[in-house]
Amino acid sequence: MSEHQPGPRAEGQRSPKKKVTTASLRRMKQRGERISALTAYDHLMAGLLDEAGVDVILVGDSVAMVVQGFETTVGVTMAHMLYHAGNVSRSVQRALVVGDLPFMSYQVNSDEALRNAGRMVQEAGVEAVKVEGGRSVAGTVRRIVEAGIPVMGHVGLTPQSIHKFGTYQVRATGPAEAEEVFEGARALEDAGAFAIVVEKVPAELGQRLSQSLSIPVIGIGAGPDCDGQILVSHDMLGLYTKFHPRFVRRYAQLGDTMRSAFEHYVRDVKAREFPSKDESY
Fold it and tell me: Which of 184, 113, 167 minimizes the C-alpha distance to 143?
């Protein structure tokens, strides 16, 4: 992937910045610059994130929970992900757009995984894909990378395996599982992954992974010493409030703001105060 300048923007818009690529993320790690990442599932949100300077925009399978109303991420399909990823990629000029490969889109065999990864790039316009798992998916990661598609790994708590874990509690608290997570991340690096997300593990493990791997390690509930951080945008904005993980910092309470605005609108309509003469033709 080569860096390029985005096309010209209309007068009044911000000056374009260099496109974020897998190579520039590696350079950010090398110079100690932290990587910012957030999720998006639609055109409007993606554009706002891009304008704000977010480095990586993940079209996450978390869309199943925060948009589609599922209880877990396993219900989202390849068709869903292609739709949402396309909405996002058409809005983004600077950030690196990564698309989640959903449950059972890459676990059956490497041929099917490669086909689905190719669809994400070719049909939805993402620049990389993400898969969950360590050693068990390393061979599949290698196959996809060898075809020219960048892959981001994901270790620690892997939500697509929630029925196996039975809980969203912190992972790798014991030495055996910590070593399994570490070796899984090393296997992904060896297979050619350009970065790894590590989720909900002790901070010491997040630090160890960041110091040991040459590729960026992006944490979510993995402590302050990872090479970057990612959150679900709906969580940090206070839009999705079914639960509040310890690692989520609420930067806004937009759910409360939106509810108040909707209630105000209802009152105005009921009281015949909207629309006014100035809002009519």
Answer: 113
Q: Which segments within 60-216 are labelled E, that is strand?
A: 96-100, 128-130, 151-156, 195-199
**pTM of this prediction?**
0.91
**What pLDDT digit, counting tens, does each position of 255-264 carry?**
999 999 999 9
Q: CA 42, CA 182: separation in Å to the nearest integer?
A: 34
Residue 127 among the catalytic residues: no
Convert the pLDDT of each residue in 128-171 to its tens digit.
Answer: 999 999 999 999 999 999 999 999 999 999 988 877 777 778 89
Tell me if the domain spanning 22-250 has CATH number 3.40.50.2300.
no
Cα–Cα distance measured from residue 181 to residue 47, given in angstroms and rounded to the nearest whole number = 34
From 127, 132, 189, 199, active-site residue: 199
Please state, in angstroms and rounded to a whole number, the distance separating the CA atoms of residues 114 and 252.
Answer: 39
- Angle 162-127-83 from CA coordinates, rounded to 5°: 60
Pairing of strands 96-100, 151-156: unpaired
DSSP secondary structure letters along 124-158? T--SEEE--BSHHHHHHHHHHHHTT--EEEEEES-
